[in-house]
Design goal:
Chain lengths: 290, 302
């Protein structure tokens, strides 16, 4: 590609109207265009905002419920409430599922929506460098949802724990593993969205992309309910398993979360592998005719 | 200038475009005609590098289009008015495209007004009629003020005023020295728009010539004349070098103008009951030419 750029373009005949004042192509322009794309589609914009409200709200409601019901809990629960129940209020399995479901779908829609509508052709005609275009899209969307995930996780954590503080069972951010819970939950957002984008880049159809994304990221690991070693090892490769390990801050492992064989490092690695695989797939499959 | 050299595209074992070699020159509107499924859209997509040719090459102003990092300033295209995301507004759609090529926002407003959809710029495209989408597509093609413009079936869904506007726009773009390549499956749309025609059928080149030359391909026009003295007039006309086909009182004359037929009849005191001239129909020429290569022929008459 670079040798073609270095080569001066053949002179166009005079009457063809020479291309004047063409600014140098900048990756930044593509980032700006992709950013604009996200916010000019109302459905995407609302999903982004709606999800940002919904997930912290789930945490607040869980914390409020526990706060209200706390006096009636049996002593056994009261004693063990901190930290595993408290952390579950901060970011529950349900919150992780909503995140995977919502962001996986948003990622799939962002990419498949362009293929199924035909917008992708107008796009490639405007930007023949398909890989740059896809790279810009992945960059903008992943960056946005990294920030989005961080905001959602931080708000969910601090608001729920502040409520639980009223019963003396709120987790402090300094508590061992608390920061990991917040980070692990935050990073689930970009991992989910990029997985959806990569799957849609392969399949291109809107419905197929959404269903497959949900099937692969949500249903597959949930359906693996065998306790056999190899099944658990396969299950560990999914983002939801990584999130469970990262968010499990109970030091003696007595939480009701499925005991995971993943190490904390291994869990971060699972996130990283999904992101890298999604980028590679997303950038490679653009060769096919749209 | 667009140069297609032995351009071929196969889908499975089927050739959508078959060894097409054509040069589309600047400064005039070139019509790209063919029946449904002739390979027009596939050809246009290959010109823009969207679909890779199975064989052959295609260049836009001397280079393959895909070598440009950004395309809008080199070629503008309306491939399909439906190639938009309905959730965006017309303005939003154009701003996205403009941003990727660093085209200023003023230009977006300019082309919106130029295309006559300035008033609808803030509305979502999903509510647009086909005609308005065509206008939006044309606006998008003009964003980069490019020397090469491609339009695939731009007349579909346009109202008469819109058709007129598009024709004048294409002509003025060509007059500015641009290459304007417009596809259609209807000859009647091209008749008043294109100066030059490229006709394909089943992916193969059938004709690449001026509109005038193309018109000459048909029956070349004829004169119809009705007279009670058909036999006598027929002899006179044949003597004057015309071709005559007789059917009762009616003669169909080729090779002579209506004026000449009238003069001959007058000179020889032949009573005429009807004299009419019939110009060559481009539509007929087109139908005749592509009859053998229609991909999707309609079923038998009911």
């Amino acid at each position: 590609m670079t040798d073609l750029m270095a080569q001066p373009a053949k002179k166009a005949p005079m009457n063809a109207g020479p291309v004047r004042n063409e600014p140098r192509a900048r990756f930044g322009d593509l980032l700006a265009a992709e950013w604009h794309k996200l916010w000019t589609l109302r459905s995407t914009a609302w999903a982004i905002i709606g999800g940002a409200v919904l997930i912290p709200l789930m945490s607040v409601l869980a914390a409020v419920t526990d706060y209200v019901n706390f006096p009636e809990y049996p002593d056994g629960i009261k004693e063990n409430f901190f930290p595993s129940w408290s952390s579950n209020d901060a970011f529950s399995d349900g919150s992780a599922w909503v995140m995977l479901l919502l962001l996986g779908s948003i990622g799939a829609v962002i990419v498949a929506g362009e293929y199924s509508s035909g917008m992708i052709r107008a796009n490639y005609a405007a930007v023949p460098r398909r890989r740059q275009l896809m790279a810009a899209k992945l960059t903008v969307v992943t960056a946005l949802f990294t920030v989005w995930g961080a905001v959602v996780a931080v708000v969910a954590f601090f608001s729920s724990q502040a409520i639980l503080d009223g019963r003396g069972v709120g987790i402090d951010i300094d508590y061992p593993g608390a920061l990991r819970l917040v980070l692990g939950s935050a990073m689930l957002a970009p991992v989910s969205v990029i997985a959806g984008m990569a799957i849609a880049a392969i399949l291109r159809g809107l419905a197929a992309s959404i269903v497959t994304t949900i099937g692969v990221t949500l249903l597959a690991p949930v359906l693996m309910n065998s306790q056999r070693d190899w099944v658990i090892r396969v299950q560990n490769l999914f983002p939801i398993s990584a999130w469970r390990r990262l968010s499990n801050i109970d030091p003696d492992g007595s939480s009701w979360f499925r005991p995971a064989e993943l190490t904390v490092g291994g869990a971060w690695m699972v996130y990283a592998v999904w992101v890298v695989a999604a980028i590679v797939v997303g950038v490679l499959v653009v060769r096919r005719d749209p | 200038m667009i140069e297609l050299t032995n351009l071929t595209k196969a889908y499975g074992g089927k050739l959508a475009v078959d060894d097409l070699s054509v040069t589309v020159r600047p400064g005039r509107v070139t019509g790209f005609l063919g029946p449904n499924g002739a390979g027009k859209s596939t050809t246009l997509r290959m010109i823009l590098g969207l679909n890779a040719p199975s064989a052959g090459t295609v260049t836009v102003d001397g280079v393959p289009f895909a070598t440009h990092p950004r395309g809008l300033r080199h070629a503008g295209a309306l491939l399909d008015a439906g190639d938009v995301q309905g959730g965006r507004t017309a303005r939003g759609h154009l701003r996205v495209l403009a941003a990727s090529n660093r085209i200023p926002r003023d230009r977006v407003e300019e082309v919106l007004d130029l295309a006559g959809i300035g008033a609808a710029a803030g509305r979502r495209i999903s509510g647009f009629s086909l005609g308005m989408r065509q206008r939006l597509g044309i606006a998008a093609a003009l964003l980069g003020d490019p020397p090469v413009l491609l339009f695939d079936e731009p007349f579909n869904g346009l109202d008469p005023e819109g058709v007129l506007w598009v024709r004048e726009l294409f002509k003025s773009l060509a007059a500015e020295g641009r290459t304007v390549f417009v596809s259609s499956h209807l000859m009647s749309e091209m008749e008043n728009t294109a100066e030059h025609l490229v006709v394909i059928g089943r992916g193969r080149l059938i004709a690449d010539e001026s509109l005038a030359a193309f018109a000459g391909r048909g029956d070349g026009g004829h004169v119809r004349v009705r007279t009670p003295e058909a036999e006598r007039l027929a002899t006179l006309l044949t003597g004057a070098g015309g071709g005559v086909e007789a059917a009762g009182e009616t003669l169909t004359v080729t090779g002579l103008s209506g004026d000449r037929v009238g003069e001959l009849a007058f000179e020889h005191r032949v009573l005429l009951r009807e004299l009419s001239t019939h110009k060559a129909s481009l539509e007929a020429a087109f139908m005749e030419l592509t009859a053998d290569s229609v991909e999707y022929k309609a079923g038998a008459k009911r």
